[in-house]
Amino acid sequence: MPAVTAHGAAPACTVEYTVTNQWGAGFQGDVKVINNQAPLSSWSLTFDLPGGQEVTRGWNAEWSQSGTTVTAANESWNGSLGTGASVSAGFLASWSGSNRSYGLSRSEPGQPHAPNGSWAHWSSPATGGR
């Protein structure tokens, strides 16, 4: 799993993203978020998928999508994360059109970046959270 690393100051979280399966019109993505700050009682993760990709279902988080922006927020039972603690969640996504690439996309200054240029934004009550 490639770990997302930050440029500059230590990130509030580390996000690991993998595509664990793919088929003709879709794929399965898994994310692991690791809290690098003080303990928190809730969390959310926001990232973009390339156009034409849509989350169809997910687990271990409350998943939503608006356009290309996907948000995964904690369930009632997995919101508390101590320093160094992690939570894993996953989703199934479909794609349409000729773009059959998959994965997180977008580049935004100051956000954690993965080696492939993907990004994820972590929020919590301590950082202006959800």
Describe this structure in words.
With 130 residues, the chain is mostly beta strands. The protein is built from no helices and eight strands. The chain is elongated, with a radius of gyration of 14 Å.
Tell me briefly what this model is.
The chain has 130 residues and is mainly β. Helix content is 0%, strand content 43%.
Structural class of the secondary elements?
A: mainly beta
Cα radius of gyration in angstroms = 14 Å
Count the DSSP helices.
0
Question: Helical percent range?
Answer: under 10%
Q: Choose one word for the global shape.
A: elongated
Topology:
Layout: E1 13-23, E2 26-35, E3 44-48, E4 53-59, E5 62-66, E6 69-73, E7 86-95, E8 121-123
Antiparallel strand pairs: 1-2, 2-7, 3-6, 3-8, 4-7, 5-6
Keywords:
disordered C terminus, 8 strands, mainly beta, disordered N terminus, 130 residues
